[in-house]
Design brief:
Helix content is 45%, strand content 19%. With 350 residues, the chain is α/β, with parallel strands linked by helices. A hairpin with a 6-residue loop joins β6 and β7. The longest helix is centred in the last third of the chain and has 28 residues.
Length: 350
């Protein structure tokens, strides 16, 4: 088997017809297997999957008795793919729809560039398909990850349409090389949800692999920018777990003043946005998980290759709608960018 497509579902009944109808219409399914890992949905997801499976004999459904989250749910799918000898696994969010010719460019990159371990299509907004959802995700040296090019016009992309390296490819539609995962390990299940795609690709880059955007492949994402208090807190908790596990000691030490300032800013933001209680509770979660993070850190840093490229893609800018306050754009971004330039060029921080 060359490719396994893995879909993790949770309360997904309203999305499944769009995903599977477009998959069937726009995907050559020879030598491709599809597995759905359902995280104990209570709406009608399993009934809808049963209906879809009547016209899709090869569709495999793995119902779970609890919500395993994005990380563990996809790991279950990756193990299923590995057991069947798949060379590549393609993860799709339940709210994705694919477009004509979407798959071949992704597989072509994997076939011709063995150094690529992760690739994403251009992900555009389903409701506004002329606008970008993510053209490859950005990663701040303080650990903040965000969608690159969000809400920019597709025409703003370079005209050459060549695959290009990105800090990390979006987990919404992510093609992974199974041989590379055998070296890096799969998703970190402690993260449960958010930043797990970032963490995995930091580890792949530490091994010397590349992560790319393939602009000639395109999918539609029913993306929402709404953030609950719990989502904010999970994002920030996982940011710290990734920093503590994946950043080399020299990088952590040099980034410490900026990290302290960023943490104060996050606390103020949390108080103003109404999720300060959840933010404070996340410190207890980090402390509880810290022994396991330290154990993982030892292995991650031991695996770091001289060809590691994870530091080369870090930025000092935060460029995302909603984060365009003058304090960020006119003060924080220039200062942090200059600070990170000095750390990279003068101090030679990895």
């Amino acid at each position: 088997m060359k490719l396994a497509i893995v879909v993790v579902t949770y309360q997904a009944e309203r999305y499944l017809d769009g995903l599977f109808a477009t998959l069937k219409q726009h995907t050559e399914l020879d030598d491709v297997a599809v597995v759905v890992v359902d995280n104990a949905s209570s709406d009608g997801t399993l009934a809808e999957l049963s209906r879809i499976g009547q016209d899709w004999p090869g569709l495999e459904v793995l119902p779970q008795t609890r919500n395993t989250g994005f990380a563990e749910g996809n790991n279950i799918g990756l193990r299923w793919a590995r057991e069947r000898g798949a060379a590549f696994a393609l993860l799709l969010n339940q709210d994705i729809e694919v477009t004509p010719g979407w798959l071949a460019p992704l597989l072509s990159v994997m076939d011709t560039r063995p150094e690529v371990a992760a690739a994403q299509p251009l992900v555009v907004l389903h409701s506004e398909p002329h606008l970008i959802n993510t053209a490859g995700n950005q990663l701040h040296f303080c650990g903040f990850g965000y969608c690159g090019g969000y809400r920019q016009a597709i025409e703003s992309l370079p005209a050459d349409s060549e695959p290009r390296s990105v800090a990390f490819a979006s987990g919404a539609a992510l093609l992974l090389r199974m041989d590379a995962l055998a070296q890096s390990g799969d998703f970190d299940e402690k993260l449960f949800l958010y930043h797990e795609d970032c963490d995995l690709q930091i580890r792949l880059r530490q091994l010397g692999y590349d992560c790319v955007l393939v602009p000639t492949s395109r999918v539609l994402h029913k993306f929402t920018a709404r953030f609950s208090a719990r989502k904010y807190a999970m994002l920030d908790r996982n940011r710290w777990l990734v920093l503590l596990k994946d950043w080399p000691l020299a990088r952590l030490a040099v980034a410490a003043p900026a990290l302290a300032g960023a943490e104060l800013a996050v606390l103020v933001f949390a108080a103003r946005q109404g999720w300060l209680r959840e933010k404070l509770a996340s410190y207890g979660e980090i402390l509880r998980l810290l022994p396991a993070v330290v154990r993982d850190r030892r292995q991650v840093q031991k695996n770091r290759s001289p060809k590691a490229t994870d530091g080369a893609f870090l930025t000092g800018n935060m460029c995302f709608p909603g984060l365009d306050h003058p304090i960020i754009t006119r003060v924080a971004n220039p200062l942090l960018s200059a600070y990170w330039w000095f750390a990279r060029k003068v101090l030679r921080v990895p």
